[in-house]
Amino acid sequence: MRHGKKFNHLSRTKSHRAAMLSNMASSLILSKRISTTVAKAKALRKYVEPLLTKSKTDDTHSRRVVFSYLQNKESVSELFNEVAEKIATRPGGYTRILKTGNRAGDNAEMCIIELVDYNELMQKEASEAKPKTRRSRRGGAAKKTEDASATTKATDDKQKVEAKADEVIEDAEVVEDLPAGKAEVKEAPKAETKEESTKEENASDGADTSEEEDKK
Amino acid sequence: MAHPKRKISKSRRDKRRTHYKATSATFMECSNCGSPVLMHRVCADCGYYKGKPAIEKEVAV
Fold first, then answer.
1. A26 and which of A58, A75, A79, A88 could share a cystine (Cβ 3.0–4.6 Å)?
2. Does B42 contact A100 at a Cβ distance shorter than 8 Å?
3. Nearest residue of chain B to residue A33 (CA atoms)
4. Contact across the interface for A112 and B41, Cβ inside 8 Å
5. Residue of A23, A56, A55, A21 lying closest to A39 (CA atoms)
6. pLDDT-derived band at A8, boundaries 50, 70, 90
7. What stretches of chain A show up as alpha helix (H) in DSSP?
8. pLDDT greater than 90 at residue A128
9. Count: domains in chain A
10. Is residue B5 part of a domain?
């Protein structure tokens, strides 16, 4: 039974698989980006990342250990001389797998696996768009922003109220111009009721606005 | 060993198969060029992924 044996054999014998991964690792280190199937890329990721970590300590022993995996002088020297400097500050996760659709012949899921520090397109964008986000709610930094938004809302509400009041007043003035005194009396209380109703509405809308005012 | 007593008629077979349905793949629009892209794939037209250029393509525009 193969319960829990997650290792992907890639339909190859151990020696075949080791040879293939060795060649792929060399290719990846030399050309920084290779196009392959997703399954192979994921197997390769597990194969090369420890080697890349190993390259950070440049001594004879680690070079020999890496050579035993890669079996390729050029790729080993490239790894220790060029790649190791680039990845020096990265704490793991040196490779990126980008899925690129399915292959024409056998509909295999294809991808590109690349060394993260050599893709300048993605790197530039990442460095530019890196806002300092705090996910923890400690310190109350996020609360302040919420308050700010609330206050703006409150001010908006106030402005609305004032505008409505102005409208009402204008209506009343128009009524006063009319000669009939009774109409005046009738219209005036209506205007007042309108004002009250609007005020009530606003009060119900902005329960938090009153709180804001209290704080001030 | 147990065996089927009767041949399944074409009608019964086909009735069973009415529930075999193909589902369409979920597409989304590329944030750069607007062409349809499968989820979690690099855009085949412009090489963008997650709003960033991931792969250099010969820029025709």
1. A75
2. yes
3. B55
4. no
5. A21
6. very high
7. 14-31, 38-54, 60-70, 73-78, 84-86, 120-128, 141-177, 181-205, 207-215
8. no
9. 2
10. no
How near does any CA of chain B get to the CA of A175, in Å? 58
CB contact under 8 A, A125 and B49: no
CATH assignment of the domain containing A29: 3.90.1030.10
Same domain, A114 and A152: no
Judge whether B20 lies within some domain. Answer: no
| Residue A113 sits in the same domain as residue A19 | yes
Binary contact (B55, A101; C-beta < 8 A): no
Is A153 inside any structural domain? Answer: yes
pLDDT in tens, A63-114: 999 999 999 999 999 999 999 999 999 999 999 999 999 999 999 999 999 9
- For residue A63, being part of any structural domain is answered with yes
Containing structural domain, residue B49: 25-61
Residue range of the domain that includes A177? 145-189
Report yes or no on A19 lying in a domain. Answer: yes
Contacts with A125 from chain B: Cβ below 8 Å: 52-53
Residue A91: per-residue pLDDT = 93
The vertex-A114 CA angle with A84 and A9, nearest 5°, equals: 105
- Is B33 within the bounds of a domain? yes
Please give the torsion angle defined by the CA atoms of residues A16, A21, A27 and A32, in that order, rounded to the nearest 10 degrees. Answer: 160
The verdict on residue B3 lying in a domain is no
Over residues B24-59, the pLDDT tens digits come to 988 888 888 888 999 999 988 888 888 777 776 654
Q: Is residue A212 part of a domain?
A: no
End-to-end CA distance of chain B: 69
Q: Give A11-23 pLDDT, tens digit per residue.
A: 999 999 999 999 9
Look up residue A67 and give its amino acid.
F
Is the CB of B44 less than 8 angstroms away from the CB of A112? Answer: no
